[in-house]
Amino acid sequence: MTPELGQIALILALLLALAQSILPIVGAWKNNSAMMAVARPAAFGQGFFVVMAFVLLVWAFLHFDFSVQYVADNSNLALPWYYRITAVWGAHEGSMLLWIFILNVWTLALALFSRQLPEVFAARVLGVLGIISVGFLAFILFTSDPFGRLLPMSACTRLIASNRSRIFAIPASAQTSSLAPPGDPPTPSAATISPLCLIATAPASARTLGSAVNAGPGPSGFLASSAI
Questions:
Q1: 59 CB contacts (<8 Å, ≥6 apart)?
Q2: Fewer CB within 10 A of the terminal residue: the chain, N end or C end?
Q3: d(C-alpha 125, C-alpha 111), whole Å
Q4: Could you tell me which residue, 162 or 14, shows the higher pLDDT?
């Protein structure tokens, strides 16, 4: 549900950016105070939904939501939490969302601290910032969506999603431990999931390297190479 909420937040932010870019500028041209007054509420609403989308993407990284294509391409179970946060803007889609986030912080600051400016001037400035936001929000929604689903989900991704609470409950040292002996029945714990999915959920270049390193004899090597 997180990716869908992020997409809805970006769509609502785009609609508010359209209102912010059109109505205040037309109001300044016609000297219509009611239309110019739309600028600040639209800027506040747009900023709220952009912040919401950014927080949802951070949440997806922190909670190993590998059903999101962008998360699956730029994260894995071996990353500490602070590296997962920085991975949010580690590729094109996330860096675009970060840029929009920073642009909205500046827009919010202007909307808050520009009340002493002439109404027509403030409406035009906020309208121009709305036009810029429209361009970037349309670009990220139609060409660089960071919330796109990874479909169909792999068996590894489904296993992680169904046992996420167990992964968080086990220390990182246990998450990277070796598999249980072949005679023991498999259990869906983090220690069982990690040797498979550290490689299976990594980018293609890392998977190629991982298969070469882990292709040796033994259960871990067999499973890691077969997962690829």
A1: 2, 65
A2: N
A3: 10
A4: 14
